[in-house]
Amino acid sequence: MSEVDPDYQVAVVGGGPAGLTTALYTTRLGHDTVLIDRGGGRAAMMQETHNVIGITEEVSGNELIQTAKRQIESYGADTVRGLVSDIHGSSGSYRLDVGEETYTAERVVLATGFSDDRPEPPLPRTGRGLHYCLHCDAYMFIDESVYVMGTNESSAHVAMIMLNFTDEVDLLLRGEEPEWGEETDRQLRAHPIDVIDEEITGMNTDQDGWLESFEFEDGTTREYKGGFPMFGAEYHAELAEVLDLKRTDGGAVQVDDHGRTSVEGVFAVGDLTPGHSQIPVAMGEGAKAGIAIHYDLREFPKSLAELDGESVDPASTPAVSDEIREAARRRDGAESTAADD
């Protein structure tokens, strides 16, 4: 990675799939980009990667992210490990405070995501019996025993949805009263789902840490391959609050089809925004935001008003920085050497 410059055209905050894809696009489209990432995140916790075409299941989320970081660095992006504590300024000149350092950028992209609210233990490890993505992981429970944990409307509906994959579905209330409405209750009771009222008192796993069963207060033990806790999520929206971005009633940042927020020059992508929390969806949002930013920032073509009867000076082309040009030369040289070998 090259020495980090404090001044950029684009600053991406958050190093998950959405932020990384945005940085990939803005860098490859010729814009000096810094990605600032505090580490962690939902994708980094994944034991396996699902539903990403071309990426097989044995690739962990952390491997996916580290490979992507090296990829964007090879194109000329900078990466910074740190927490953005504050953002100042306006479109065309934002200042981001990261520890003792300050970075400036013409456009800011928030890709800070959210954290799933975890139920109280005993619980299996994430990915080894505890799953947060229905659309990613339902496939692995075909003809397997599965639990859904929670008392809200979502938990009841997810339990019914899982009947599309298996006939062994338990809904675990863990000693709490259900919060879903009367209509949902009638609907749920008409489906072949066991609603377990008792609290979990113990858990059994195999030698590799994969869930085998839960023990309950009534003395029973039930076997599960895994399941889904439905306890909600908390958006990492501190910077959205600083910038006073418009948000949905649920707390997500409101965006248009290209990730633009209510504040000019600020974009948001991935789990921080409304919609399906999926890696391919996040990547698509990052790509669209990156292209939209390119349309905002690219130098050419000049409009007739900008030209004002003059011609473009050939010396002003190409409009990419020396850093990105050098990265492109390095990559071209490496690819040529690989082809010769």
UniProtKB/TrEMBL annotation:
Q: Could you name the domain of life of the organism this protein comes from?
A: Archaea
User: Which Enzyme Commission number(s) are on file for it?
Assistant: 1.8.-.-
Keywords noted in UniProt: Flavoprotein, Oxidoreductase
Q: Which GO terms describe its molecular function?
A: oxidoreductase activity
Has the keyword Flavoprotein been applied to this entry? yes
Pfam families given in the database record? Pyr_redox_2 (PF07992)
Q: Which organism is it from?
A: Halolamina pelagica
Name by which UniProt lists this protein: Sulfide dehydrogenase subunit alpha
Which InterPro entries does the entry mention? FAD/NAD-bd_sf (IPR036188), FAD/NAD-binding_dom (IPR023753), Ferredoxin-NADP_redctase_2 (IPR050097)
Domain FAD/NAD(P)-binding per the UniProt entry, residue ranges = 8-286
Return the annotated region ranges for Disordered: 308-341
Q: Where is the composition biased (Basic and acidic residues)?
A: 322-334
